[in-house]
């Protein structure tokens, strides 16, 4: 493809280090689509004859049919998917194939193909997130009033509802959706026609190719067009943050599934056994989601480091942009599907959750709040009084509401028997009815809003 200037061919090492076909063959559909858009435009503009444009179009369809049927051949001498396709096109239709590369370069070609691929990856992530959100909202609605301990520092803090806990992950997923949608909108400009770096002297119509490929319009600067990989980084940043959320959710399930917690039984379909310990049921899928998130974050780091030292415009380092993105996209799809399946298939052990909420003096804040409201005691003093009550209960090894009225009044005489109504975990969660609070009524309201936002109504 570029032999004219060279006296000798590349060494075996050069061929191997140069070849991207082993991985960029994944771009073949995008490469064919972009070439078809390009040649239709060359024909419409009279840059190639209509007959040649049609022959090239039909030839590209024939190449695509071959790839579809038997895969993309991997010949290192042909370097990448662009040369592989053009060379096969030449075999099929003869010299007219050589006109396809008029007014373009592999630099704008790869930038276009890769944008199209990453745009699809955004759509795939958005679909996966929608499924996860749908599952979270369904289980949250089911468990709007199921009580569990809420934690800070992984220490029992206050009772919350399981529905509320699940909706926290719905919110994270909603922010992920907005990040992928934002990345998609920003990347939706077509670099085709930037050519090698400076644009082209041919009278091309960049608006036509942009429109044919579903872009909002052409990119504005040819140097930026061939050297920009922000679109891939935007995708990876959204993917890394989404993976981080999935990892946190996976970690919750791992903790909850452990015997001392026993809050959840994971679906058999997403668990494994042990070859030596017959009693074991391991949360491997959740652990792998936690593990894969590290690789997705690594992909982001990898591409940032590839790009950070590159002057304008294209440098061959940029060929290394694809493996991390392909890897991250594959892993993210898997992780989203695994966590969706886990949320859908988990059996929540609500009795154990409720019992755990009653341990650890989770309603101590409710006692302090009651003292503020009923006895008009300043919160700091109420906090101190409640601390004494917790100390007494702890010494006796009982829950707060198992203390007698006499014992409580010995701590502070302003306490009366109405206090017991405030000390149950049900009263505690029901009282937290501030906007976005854990009260079952609030959770039901958020579920209804989420269902509408997801288009489930
Ligand atoms: N295989 C190359 C890549 O992925 C295509 C662009 C090659 N451009 C060039 N000037 N050698 O980046």
Account of the protein in words:
The protein has helices at 12-18, 21-24, 28-44, 50-70, 81-93, 106-142, 162-187, 206-212, 222-227, 230-257, 284-307, 322-345, 350-358, 364-375, 379-396, 405-411, 419-422, 425-431, 440-453; strands at residues 147-152, 155-161, 264-265, 347-348. It is built from 19 helices and 4 strands. Helix 10 packs antiparallel against helix 11 and helix 10 (230-257) runs parallel beside helix 12. The mean pLDDT is 96. It is elongated and about 100 Å long. By secondary structure, it is mainly alpha-helical. The two termini are 57 Å apart. Bound molecules: arginine (ARG). Residues 20, 24, 80, 106-107, 110, 314, 316, 318-319 line the site of arginine (ARG).
Q: SSE layout and pairings?
A:
Elements: H1 12-18, H2 21-24, H3 28-44, H4 50-70, H5 81-93, H6 106-142, E1 147-152, E2 155-161, H7 162-187, H8 206-212, H9 222-227, H10 230-257, E3 264-265, H11 284-307, H12 322-345, E4 347-348, H13 350-358, H14 364-375, H15 379-396, H16 405-411, H17 419-422, H18 425-431, H19 440-453
Antiparallel strand pairs: 1-2, 3-4
Helix pairs in contact: 3-4, 3-6, 3-8, 4-5, 6-7, 6-10, 6-12, 6-19, 7-10, 7-19, 10-11, 10-12, 11-12, 14-15
β-strand percent reads: under 5%
Q: Structural class of the helices, strands and pairings? A: mainly alpha
Number of helices: 19
The rounded distance between the terminal residues' Cα atoms is 57 Å
